[in-house]
Amino acid sequence: MIAKMKKLTFLVYHKEYDAFLKSIRDLGVVHVATKAQGSAEDAGLQESIRLSTRYAAAIKLLQGMNVQPVDNHAGNADRGMDVLTEMEDLQQQIQQVAHKLQSVEKEVAQLESWGDFDPHSLERLHDAGYQIDFYICSDKQFKDEWADLYNATVINRVGSKLYFVTVIPNHVCADLEVESAKLPEISLSDLQVKREGLIKQNETLQKQMEDLAASAIPDLQAAQAKVHSQIEFSKVVLNTNSLADNKLMLLQGWTPVERIDEIKHFLETEEVYYEISDPSPEDDVPILLNNKGFFRLFEPIMRLYMLPKYNELDLTPFFAPFFMLFFGLCLGDSGYGLFMLLAVTVYRLVAKNIAASMKSILTLVQLLGASTMVCGLLTGTCFGFNLYDIQVPFFQSLKEAISLDNQQMFNLSLILGGVQIIFGMILKAVNQTIQFGFKYAVATIGWILVLVSSAIAFAAPGVMPMGGTVHLVFLVAGLLMAYLYNSPDKNIFVNIGLGLWDSYNMATGLLGDILSYVRLFALGLSGGILASVFNSLAVGMSPDNVIAGPIVMVLIFVIGHAINMFMNVLGAMVHPMRLTFVEFFKNSGYEGGGKEYKPFKN
């Protein structure tokens, strides 16, 4: 369900406004209404956002180094800026050293083929009237006469390439149609020493960065949180309307009804005029989901789609049981469900300091595992084996009570699809009644009468014969409601036309929606088949050896079922979500688009 909200309007004298905002922030229960046009042009806000981005990048970089923290001290926000500056300087130095090292490595690669020599010797030869040129060519390109004409001397041979030099007088020009090499003005040994120095410098800088990663992340996180608080404060200031020549500040916000007494008690101590009112239909009210117990566990799944509008039904409690059942049918293996349940239970017993949000997710996984255990008993599948092949009285009694064959599982999937879709249409009628009035729900109720009566006549002709008087009464009444009250504000001819269009959509769309639920049967069946295949591989591929045979069998069994479980759990999450978000939400008339309630707080 959606928590009821109250609209708050504050009128504050401008000199007292900053202090009032700080008090509101400390209270931490007011969701500030933002302007539609936004406030991104403020220079101070932009600077704070850039600083927050720098903190986020620094935290991500240090966390990515996977360094064990030296202690779990509380972060110091005041030290965060110094740490950020130090880290960015280190990062810049590391980049500079990396560029220099890359350049030196390139020069070393150039000189290695020529050997180690002193470049100053070339200058002395030039002063003596001779010049030395360096060339690279293939074996086929090199000509023997170059040795006589230009004193060509081969220095090195790498593969099919020759590295040679020519020694000629300064006034002579050697016209060789081969690649000329330009070498660095430093010896190979000096370059190698320089390279070693850069490598050591880089190691020193990396060690300093690792020291920061081990000790400074909490400081950066605390500083980032402080900047986020400043950003939220700036947004609130920028979303305030100035009145009476900027002497009065007008601010609007929202708070849950159960926090109103707390708000009133706080405002009695403030020099501020305020009004508390109910939302009007045109207000964009923030959404706070307030489900309890079992239904609260499924709120993260609803948030993956979108939150409802304030005047809409929250469908979380209505899809939760279906989702749990659909997950169990898609996974469809009692062994996998038992493994999920036991693994999460053991983790909760062993792990310490589990966050509240994580606890709810773990509880959800336990429920989904329990659902899989129960649904797996419908086919008797357990790690790819059939429990009902075991001649034990307990399993045989279960087989007689709840066992279903493939055709029955196929039919069950379609029946569940029809039930959820009709249930969604009932919720649509309720939603239309709440939002617009009962007359706007009449057409939906008419279609429900047509579908439910036809389903009963098909499934139980003894109760209501197909085409009998009772069935025809329901059909005629439902069609009249659907055709004449399709759109209450329009004339009868428009309603009939819209009714015909709805009939077409109902005939084509409803069939496709129900057939979509066949995936519940198909996924469970394919997962069971793949599990049995891995069992066969484990038995068939194990060698006939007393020691190696069982080891290979266990390895294939464990690895195969781990892969199968991963793929099937993923499918068992995705496909029920698809059925919920597409088929169920569509037939329930769900619009969504609500924005989440986010109170202004530190």
Keywords for this entry:
single chain, 602 residues, alpha+beta, Alpha-Beta Plaits, 3 domains, five-stranded antiparallel sheet, four-stranded antiparallel sheet, 20 helices, 62% helix, extended
Strand content: 5-15%
**Residue share in helices?**
55-70%
Kindly report how far apart the N and C termini lie.
27 Å
Q: How many alpha or pi helices?
A: 20
* CA radius of gyration: 38 Å
Task: Give the structural class.
Answer: alpha+beta
Report the oligomer: single chain
Q: Please, how many domains? A: 3
Shape descriptor reads extended
User: What is the strand tally?
Assistant: 11
Low-confidence stretches: 36-40
User: Would you tell me the overall average pLDDT?
Assistant: 84
Sketch the major β-sheet: 5 strands, antiparallel
